Sequence to fold (161 residues):
Amino acid sequence: MQRRRLAHPLPPDFFQCPVLTSSEADAMIASGVDALKHLVMHARLDDTSAYKWKLERATQDLQVYVGSDLTKSKGTVVFMSVTELHATLDEAASLLECDTSDSYRTFIQRYNKDVIDCAVLATLAPRTPTYPRNYIGLKWFVQETPLPCRNRDFCVVEVRL
Fold:
């Protein structure tokens, strides 16, 4: 059986996601929040962190690190980006507001040049007037890889609190 290659970007209606049950959505939210708490607690570049951080890429304005969690299985990998913004907290938070596929695609095109396609699959916890910076969603993206590897796609739970 021959695999067909998909042309990117995929059409907006490509993903027909099943409706999540409350318990499935709650489990994804809990997993994402736990991962965020763990990352924030260990996002230090010194030897006190449970992560072993390696500088993957650096430009004048941005450093990207890949981390291995020394307390978990070898398959656990996290990423951290470091930059400096001259902005208020509200201005900085607005840079990350990509809750729709269109705004997510715009964000990716601007900041992630190696990502060739993306989509918002589901919003698990939308922003609210009480918590305008908070958002939890299920997202998909395809990262371009060098030959001879095929491009890789990922589904992630994005948590902004």
